Amino acid sequence: MNGFDWSGFALVTIGSFVAAAVLMIVTAAFGFARGRHNVVDVSWGVGFVVVALVAAAFGDGDAWRRWLLAALVAVWGLRLAAHMARRTSGHGEDPRYEKLLDDAGGNRTLTAIRKIYLTQGVALWFVSLPVQVAAVAHGGVGVFTILGVAVWSVGFVFEAVGDAQMSAFKADPANRGTVMDRGLWGWTRHPNYFGDACVWWGIFLVAAQTWPGVLTILSPVAMTYFLVYATGARLLEQHMARRPGYREYQQRTAYFVPRPPHR
C-alpha cells in the first residue's frame, strides 16, 4: 500500500519486540537480585533507545527519518535513564511499586513479573510503534515532521527543566517536608510527565508524515494514559496526598496540562 514495505516492518517490529523482551528479562533478574523493582525505571528509557537503534539499523526506509527518530529517542531516553539512576541510587523501593504489590496480594514474585516487567516490556514495544513504522517508510520532510520536532522539543524542555528544578528543590534541607510549587511546578503538578507525553506525541507526528505512520496514533494515546492514569501521576498523587500543604497545591495548580497558577 503506497509502497510501504510490510515485510520490512515485520522484521523491525519482531526485532524490537525481542530486544525489549531481553532487556526486561535482564532487568527483572537484576531487580530480584537487588530486592527492589524500581530498577525498571532506568531500563524504561534505555529500552526505547535500544528499540530505536534496532529500527534504524534494520529498517530500509529513508535514512534521514530513521536516524532523526533514533537521535530524538536517544537524547530523551538516555537523559531519562541517567536521571532515574541518580534518583534511585541509594534508596529503597519506589512507594508506587510497593503499593502495587501490596494491593495485588498473593505471590509477590509473579505479580512483579506480570504487572511490572511484562507490562512495561509490552508497553515499551507498543509505544515505540511510530519509530518502528517510520523506519521502513519513505517520503519527504513536511509540516508534520517540523511540527513533530517542535512538539518533541517542548516536551524535552519541560521534562528536563522540571526534573532539574525538583532535584535542586530536594537538595535544599530547608525544603524538607514542603511541597514543590515553584518554576514549572507552579504551572502543572507534573511537568515531567507532561513533557514525556509531548515527546511521544512529537515522535508520532514525525512518523505520521508518511503512510501508515498515522495509524500508530494509539501509541502516544497509550503513553499519555500511562502517564496520567495508570502508573504515573495518579499513583504519585495518592502518595503525595498525605503531605501537608499538598491539597492546597492541588487546588491552585493544574493537574497535567500547564496553565498559570490560581492565587
UniProtKB/TrEMBL annotation:
This is DUF1295 domain-containing protein. Keywords: Membrane, Transmembrane, Transmembrane helix. It comes from Rhodococcus parequi. The chain crosses the membrane at residues 6-32, 39-58, 64-82, 141-161, 217-236. The keyword Oxidoreductase does not apply. It comes from the Bacteria. The lineage of its organism: Bacteria, Bacillati, Actinomycetota, Actinomycetes, Mycobacteriales. Pfam families: DUF1295 (PF06966). InterPro entries: UstE-like.
